[in-house]
Here is the input.
Amino acid sequence: MADVILKKIYVKVWRQNNVRAKGRFETYEVENISQGSSFLEMLDILNDKLIREGKDPIAFDHDCREGICGTCSLYVNGRAHGPDRDITTCQLHMRKFNEGETITIEPWRAGAFPVIKDLMVDRTAFEKIQQAGGFVSVNTGGVPDGNAIPIGYEDAEEAMDAAACIGCGACVATCKNSSAMLFVAAKVSQLAKLPQGKVEGKRRAKAMVAKMDELGFGGCTNTGACELECPKGISISHIARLNREYLKAKFSD
Amino acid sequence: MSKGSFLNASVGRKFLMSITGLFLIMFLLVHMSINLLLIFDDSGDLFNIAAHFMATNPFIKIIEPVLALGFAIHILWSIIITIQNMRARPVKYLKSNQAVNSTWASRNMFILGAMLFVYIGIHLYNFWWKMKFAGDPLLEHITVMQAGVPVEMENAYALVATLFKESVIYDIVYIIGGVLLGLHVSHGFWSAFQTIGFNNHIWRKRLFVLAQVIGAIFAIGFSVIPLYFLIKF
Amino acid sequence: MSKIDNKIPAVPLAEKWSKHKESIKVVSPANKRKLDVIVVGTGLAGASAAASLAELGYNVHAFCYQDSPRRAHSISAQGGINAAKNYQNDNDSVFRLFFDTIKGGDYRSREANVYRLAEVSPNIIDQCVAQGVPFAREYGGTLANRSFGGVLVSRTFYARGQTGQQLLLGAYGALNRQVAKGSVKMYTRHEMLDVVIVDGKARGIIARDMVNGEVKRFGAHAVVVATGGYGNVFFLSTNAMGCNGSAVWQCYKKGAWFANPCFVQIHPTCIPVHGDQQSKLTLMSESLRNDGRVWVPKKKEDAEKLQKGEISPNDIPDEARDFYLERRYPSYGNLVPRDVASRAAKERCDAGFGVNNTGKAVYLDFKYSIERLGKDVIEARYGNLFQMYEKITDVDPYKEPMMIYPAIHYTMGGLWVDYNLMTNIPGLYAIGEANFSDHGANRLGASALMQGLADGYFVLPYTIGDYLANEIMTPKIDTSIPEFEEAEKSVTGRLEKLFNIKGTEPVDHFHKELGHIMWDYVGMSRNAEGLKTAVEKMKKLKKEFWANVLVPGEMSNVNPELEKAGRVADFIDIGILMAQDALDRKESCGGHFREESVTDEGEAKRDDEDFTYASCWEYKGEDAEPVLNKEDLEFENVALTQRSYK
Ligand SMILES: Cc1cc2nc3c(=O)[nH]c(=O)nc-3n(C[C@H](O)[C@H](O)[C@H](O)COP(=O)(O)OP(=O)(O)OC[C@H]3O[C@@H](n4cnc5c(N)ncnc54)[C@H](O)[C@@H]3O)c2cc1C
Ligand code: HEM
Ligand code: SF4
Ligand code: FES
Here is the structure.
């Protein structure tokens, strides 16, 4: 694998000093980037340069850098997590870009995700949705043996498909309505598939949807964009299940 | 069930859209079937009989206001939903490459709907308004033999056929209208099932394909009529 | 020196925990409401503890530096979690899990703690299942298991390659439930920068709000530190970018002992370093060794050609491949413990048989299992890992073997705690990777998750009561007292100092430098000479850092560089202590390999005569050398033998 070096690229980045400040785009030059480097490593290098020039480095969220914590969240060249399928921003590599290209980087845009600084957004709204009902109400201790309730292979797999959500918010970012339906559906559907979660299924679906609405996310119009940009490929079939759960709950009220 | 909160909740609102949307699709399937009679009998008798039946059938009398209500709700809620959804993103993206992740129709349902609204308005004015209220010399009663019995009815065929024969503009408007409808339904049909929760990873593909088929049928079915008159006369 | 009191009850091993539980104090529900507990860190250990404590009725204040507890580093654990369920009927038992863990840890952990860990392990699985954790299942609906390195039974529970994620989301759910009820107050994007000691007891913390830079005081009747490991001392590691040793280090500076700092785990299966722009290393789960075979070419010419990229691994016939783990360790083969597998890889690469362009990689080949089981089976087991590998390296592991190399992964060392998980500072607890308790000199795969959850769900909620029962008369902690004021001032002072140096080099420069020193001298293989050099170099680096670091931005705003600066300042100190500890421990054990202490075959040689202790380092001031206290480890239930996986 010969390492190809991008001699020069340009990045056009959203800069905004804090929640209240007005933002603007700025374009920077970055030199000598290995195509084997990750996108965030490219930003590290740019930041190193900015710091040395006495400028404020670009703030962006990241932590695990292996696609599982859901912290990284960049809208790159018009797509959530950039131009590749089934990955997070931290898994995006520079081999997806060309010499001399201008790469546009924006934060997740949604009223429910205000910008904290530059490319960093506040996703507390997701926390609130989870707190509204994204759990099974059991205390520690006093639970039955793990094998007491058999769960079919298919059900367990489907629950796991949904549970794979990393809470990154790409679905909201990419949705033309800034809807959080895929995120909510992932949790509701996971627990609806398991006997443990079914018990309070109705309450959960209603509470999480109500919270989502309250926090200013848009509604779902089933464009399916979220599913294609979701780094974990969470299927919108789970949204259908959420709708089912929700309608069932509402009609039996 | 607290109706207020349901109809205001995102999922509840969408539920109304889908129910009304599906209802409109059902209506349009019937409507289109009858319309197609226009091109299978140049004498116009078949169409006139069907139109007469529709105009006099008591069941249709009941359905008519329901249909109007369906439209009203569908349109009203579509406006509410669209405004709400636009508000959810106060700052827009500079660069947004949505073509890679969704169909054009799915992203432009309101625009399609709004254009449909205009189209429906024109359509209602052209035919429904004239037949019901304003009247038109072309609608002069004729007698058609129906099961061996002569029945007197309006010559709806003449009204329609004349419009399409004489106005290329209207032909084009109606062809475009048909295509818009097809596009709207190509997303709307499967989307409605998704909204009411009738979907899973198996039905997903089937419904999507079905939506494209129904969309195409609508697009072709509705635009073939003006096209027929445009070409033939 | 007086014997260190670790509070382990003097009864037979199997009865210790139940007897201990019977003897410790309990706080009444009415009194629990009046007691505040701070939990710093909401990874597996912290989230499970915070939720369980809140369920019991305590007022919990929980902190994490990410924007959500769900993003804690525990989320990245891939392979699985151990539990002595014996669901496979393969003669597993609490004792066998205990024994494997003690042996895997190379006899440098406490029998009592490890036994308790094994004893509560089955409860963890039950708890997680009840929370809706979607563990893998058999077609009949029962829980599935896989095997991990260093053991001969199949006791690892898993959720695809995302076990840590699923367990953490379970604990996160439990935590959220308490947040919604108001019994946990969650502070995200808050970094703990100091612990406050009042009259010898831990009474609160100082934390910086990472959004607006505000330095705040928080008081409580007890403080629990669950801030994870300090593997990022090495700069490149499999840890998340934000993982740090700072909370632990502040506790140490306030008098808590730091135990076994030199015990670091180097994981054998990571994606090799690609160049000098790299910021972190990615782990490929150990579970891959179940189905992958590790090899390098037998002939050096082949290795050289591979290094130059002239041939592909598939060109090398089976006869010319050296399956060195199977060759050296026939009974465990590819499933030897991590330390053994890592050293064996290093040995081959140092001998010139490494396979990528840097010569620092070996193959992990799935060809054989794909032939045996079919691609579908392999895909179902490891699909997401294979995808991850391909995204990073651009090589398809279904077609070509993976390239792997050891990398820093886990720190067994941490704050010293007694059987109650309390440090030597009353009221200050440490759980999860942040403490030193259960893994000795080497941790077995799938045991960290087990330990974090055991601590948080089933141990701390009991043991903390014993301390808090004496605190019921203590009113709410007043944070305006001088101790808090002073702590806050010193935190602010340090931040200002870092900020105002305005040197010429960004923080990462020093961190990378530190990483090089650590990897070269305090890494997989250590010797006295090198360790002394390392201490020298790090002391020099420390001076340079404090004279020349450049922290940009603003103090009172989001400032990742300021955060990093504080962490790296502490990492340098931790690195020095690690080297000192490694220097003291003149034996090879587990992950700690001293070149001076090897068998004739070149395997690690323990010295039980002189080193059967946990080293407990005590801070004596900025310029003074730390003091080493020794907790003797007593083995009454297992015989100390030289570990063999042959
Ligand atoms: C890639 C990888 C794979 C792994 N796979 C496995 C596996 O398969 N099986 C297994 O058993 N183990 C595995 N491990 C090890 C295991 O994941 C960790 O040891 C374990 O999750 C640690 O949990 P914890 O709760 O102690 O700490 P963490 O999960 O690291 O949590 C630390 C918490 O502390 C907070 N924090 C840290 N510093 C501060 C501060 N200064 N102020 C405020 N908050 C702070 C963080 O925000 C976080 O909430 C793996 C580790 C890695 C790196
Ligand atoms: C002419 C007949 C019409 C038919 C058959 C029709 C059908 C449908 C259907 C089936 C849906 C899907 C509902 C769902 O996803 O749950 C839909 C959605 C929608 N329709 Fe219509 N509609 C028609 C007219 C209109 C008109 C006139 C407007 C607007 C003025 C409109 C605007 C919308 C909007 C905004 C949506 C929501 C888009 C979405 O959720 O993706 N429609 N329509
Ligand atoms: S559903 Fe997908 S895109 Fe949305 S938060 Fe979860 S992982 Fe991210
Ligand atoms: S940094 Fe964790 S998913 Fe990208």
Q: What stands out?
A: DSSP finds 18 helices and 21 strands in chain C. The CA atoms of residues 11 and 19 of chain C lie 8 Å apart. Chain C has a mean pLDDT of 95. The longest strand of chain C covers residues 402-411.
